[in-house]
Design a protein that fits this description.
Strand order of the largest sheet: 3-2-1-9-10
Distance between the termini: 11 Å
CATH architecture of the largest domain: 2-Layer Sandwich
Number of strands: 17
Radius of gyration: 22 Å
Number of domains: 2
Helix content: 40-55%
Strand content: 15-25%
Length: 421
Amino acid sequence: MSASPARACGIDFGTSNSTVGWLRPDSGALIPLEDGKTTLPSAVFFNADEDTTCFGRAALAEYLDGYEGRLMRALKSLLGSSLIDGSTEVLGRQLSYRELLRQFIGELKTRAETFAGRRFEAAVLGRPVHFVDDDEDADRRAQETLGEIARSVGFREIAFQFEPIAAAFHYEQDLDREELVLIVDIGGGTADFSIVRLSPERARHVERREDLLANAGVHIGGTDFDRALSLAEVMPLLGMNSKKKSGIEIPSAPFFRLATWHLINFSYTRTAWNELQEIYRDAAEREKLDRLLNTVSQRDGHWLALQVEQAKIGLSEHERVTLELDRIARAPLEHAIDRAGLDAALAPLTTRVRDTVATMLAEAGVAGEQIDTVFFTGGSSGVSLLRQQIAALLPQARAVEGDLFGSIGAGLAVEAARRFG
């Protein structure tokens, strides 16, 4: 490492959490961004009661404390979607989604600069292998949009690096021999993979193209796991899959909105409310639909999504968790979910992830037995079923868990120092 701090930083703008990395002597790579923590949840809360805007954990806390306002989360999901050129109403005025991202990325830059005591005008930005699956033009536009937003907040020199490659560079810092490594990065919005040759000798080179054997990615991540678990276990409590008086199943759209992080706020529009009233009039099981109407009228969609997310996390360590849902039922309501329920809900998604890895190995001409190490990073890589399915493809590989929320940002800091000095 250089005897002086790097002049550039690395930014991991994540769907669920974001980090900023900066190499300097005798210090960790990640910059503290909130209350001494190196992660900043990718959330913004526009507080109507106090006419303020806050970010990260503070945003989630104010929302959960009951302040009136608008919570926005899973911001990265806007990149590559048709929503990016649109706007939404916030505190009585229109806010473009590009401006929303500009505010959050600008906040990351400001907090990093405050800690560092200097300006950052150069940065390496992490990006998924695919912002958009099977659409190269949309993928390119998503990267261009991210670059434009980064320039608008004051970055003059910008480079991009695939997030799993950044994680590989972080892992390589501690190696004492050569390894063929599969990087598995499951974040909030995407699942990304790279097969890379790593070693202490190779780490000295700036150009690493020959060391990268394959990249692959699929637009599946933690928010998709949350949605799948919510639809399977929670939304039926609110009336999903129930019938109209005529015997026809009620529409599923309101439940999909409530179960999808970046669509929750669309549940609160006048059109959506009128739709719910019409569904309620024809519903055969109104007690369940009462919970749905309570959730929407109280604007508790994000609260409910947080309960599902915590259940998913809890089931990575425990065989069973219990959700306390009195808040939306306005009466005692508990719902237990076990590991088997989680696995059943996630199986279609984890199978797609496994198949993506298998295809990448075949296309790269690499047998599963040749992989020395699987390096897991990303907050959603701890899902047990996912790890089991990947392990079955790689019988000889040892599993290594990196910093689930920090490996990419730390690796981007390494890349920033290499590229910009």
